[in-house]
Amino acid sequence: MYAFHSITVVGAIFMIIFGAGLYRRLRSKLPADSMLPPVAFAGLLGTAVASILGSGLDTEFMRALASGGEGVTATSVSMYNHWIGTIPWLWTLAGLTGLSLYLAAQPHAAVPRWRAGSV
Which domain holds residue 16? Predict the structure, then answer.
């Protein structure tokens, strides 16, 4: 759990930095009124926020397990199981970024086609 929590937090930080750079790159290559740069950034920012929230529950269970499992009830374990099964949906927002890259690559050549997929 410590590794998952730490890697998720570091990944979320880097995702925001990458999203800001991607926003700047798309903004410089696309028309001024294009909505693609903010949508691409919003997708990664939302994914980063959901990643932090998703890893946050681990801290409660890490503390409980470090103290010998005291206070961990069957209902808590069941809820944690449902949480872990649901939180992978956080990557849905990253799909906005992928769609923005695809749309930016096709008519505007804002990114190379091999990065956005070819049709």
Answer: 2-116
